[in-house]
Amino acid sequence: MNGSYWHVYGVVVERAGDNGIFVGGSNNILERTVTRYNRDTGLQLSRIASDTPNSQWPANNLILSALSHDNADSDGEDADGFAAKLTVGSGNVFRYAVARNNIDDGWDLYTKTDTGPIGPVTIEDSLSYNNGTLSDGSQAGNGDRNGFKLGGEDIGVNHVIRRNIAYHNGKHGFTYNRNLGTMAITDNVSIDNAERNFSFDGGSSVFRGNTSCRSSSGTNDKIVGDADGSNQFWTGTNGSRCASYAGTLRWSFASDGRLVVTFG
Question: What's this model's pTM, rounded to 2 decimal places?
């Protein structure tokens, strides 16, 4: 999708040989899309071609009330649910989106040195769960398996990550992944991910109102940055807010497209 100012609604893309939906244009809305069983990331934003200048990298796209699941590439290490990585401009937003059971990560905001920083991405009111394991139970050893992977190669990008849930992913729930920027990590919930619920070993990100819970023992969260007492990170016991996140995860899209997530 290399055009701009399109509104795509209700499209299902499955079993593509590469990405399900690839967005190289700007100022688009992709709403109620489903991308599943594709051989690379379900829905990806990146530049159109290797010679596309930075000024034309995809910007100001809105991914709204979308679902991406069971995407798996041949080597098991690249197919995410959603990605805005390598070569994207500013203003891209994911809202009310669900990434589940993808072979690699739920979200991937990877950067690398030869293309440099990407524009800040906003992910809000979204859900990432069971990534690293497909719906049929199969896994791939090469997959990163994070819920929200937020960077790469020590490049700082100031993403906004707010009011999201990471549940039962095969590695970390939320990870800086060597993003040394100042991200705003606000009001997120991370539950029972295989390693850390929150994994931030560097950077100067600001953490407010986040909650980390476990139904049994697990690895302590690691936070480097500005974190105050509004957060309840996991250091061996659950905080008081965790009682709201016990039981079975359920979710649905409301009639107006909002994502509704419940536990019980």
Answer: 0.98
